[in-house]
Design a protein that fits this description.
Layout (H helix, E strand, L loop, with lengths): L1 H15 L1 H36 L4 E5 L2 H6 L10 H13 L3 E7 L1 H12 L3 H5 L8 E6 L5 H8 L5 E6 H44 L1 H9 L4 H36 L4 H4 L8 H30 L3
Antiparallel strand pairs: 1-3, 1-4, 2-3
Length: about 300
């Protein structure tokens, strides 16, 4: 009987404050969708880092004849065979190096033609204008500075370039977007909490006569407060369910199908369904607990019921 009474009171409260309840649902849904999206974006950044950091190389470009005339780093002339052997020997002895691949000028020219064959510059470029290089795969991509310190400025070395630096700019942008999403989520969550507080206060005030009678007949404080707390929890849970729906729809229609970014952007290793599904219980739990706690403390502060 008591459970039936609580359930009936929840329905009454939700119907009486339908507009505010709808506003609570929308604000909770948006804030938790942003929260879930930021968690997934963070997972995406970590996944992409793991995918690309494992593939990035440090490149040691060697001086050619053209560089000897125009580049201060190659003022002593083009790289010699002895210098190349010494560089290779030093690389073999470095514990941070996993693999070294030599790229000749002809190979560099071939790769350039494959990637930029449509460029006007490609037709006037010759192999001797490109640098020989050593492509170095590191055991730990963070150890780039070890290579740079060892070879930057050495005779025969034109430059040392780290592909990881290019990726770091991309990841920095993604993390900035993630921070913006979290900031917007925090703002929406504050709005949702304010709406929950006002909804509970209005609901409790509109039923002050009933709660007064219940207090007179000896009903416990929790029994009186339970319908109000459950109203907020139900509204929050509906909002959490909508937020989960947003995330599932976004994964299905934006990444897998519809826009199909996973097929169009082959360079990005997108997160899978496991990452999405593991976030949904957390979102539902938060959507249930935060409104319930907000309602509980609101009743304690504003309503002596």
């Amino acid at each position: 009987m008591r459970a039936q009474f609580v359930v009936s009171e929840i329905g009454v409260g939700l119907r009486r404050n339908l507009t505010m309840t709808f506003a609570v649902i929308v604000s909770v849904a948006l804030s938790l969708a942003l929260f879930g999206g930021s968690l997934l974006l963070n997972d995406q950044v970590d996944t992409t880092k793991g995918y690309w950091y494992d593939k990035v190389n440090v490149s040691v470009f060697l001086c050619n004849k053209s560089d000897a005339e125009s580049d201060p780093n190659c003022a002593k002339g083009a790289v010699t065979e002895d210098q190349k052997k010494q560089i290779m020997s030093d690389l073999d002895e470095m514990t941070v190096v996993e693999k070294v691949t030599y790229e000749s000028q002809d190979e560099a020219y071939k790769h350039y033609k494959e990637q930029f064959g449509d460029s006007p510059l490609a037709s006037s470029l010759t192999p001797d204008q490109l640098q020989e290089s050593y492509r170095i795969k590191l055991k730990d991509p963070e150890k780039y500075q070890v290579i740079a310190t060892a070879f930057d400025g050495r005779d025969g070395v034109q430059s040392v370039q780290d592909q990881k630096g290019i990726l770091d700019n991309l990841f920095g942008l993604l993390e900035g977007v993630n921070l913006a999403a979290l900031s917007l989520m925090a703002l929406m969550l504050v709005v949702a909490l304010m709406l929950i507080v006002n909804t509970v206060r209005v609901s409790a005030f509109s039923r002050r006569r009933e709660t007064g009678i219940m207090r007179l007949v000896g009903a416990s404080g929790f029994y009186i407060q339970a319908p109000f707390i459950m109203e907020a929890a139900v509204a929050g849970l509906i909002g959490g369910g909508v937020a989960c729906g947003f995330l599932v729809i976004a994964k299905y229609f934006i990444i897998d199908h519809g826009l199909a970014l996973s097929e169009k952007l082959n360079l990005i290793n997108f997160i899978g369904w496991d990452a999405v599904l593991t976030k949904l219980p957390l979102i539902l739990a938060i959507s249930l607990l935060i409104p319930a706690l907000a309602a509980f403390f609101t009743l304690r502060k504003y309503q002596r019921v």
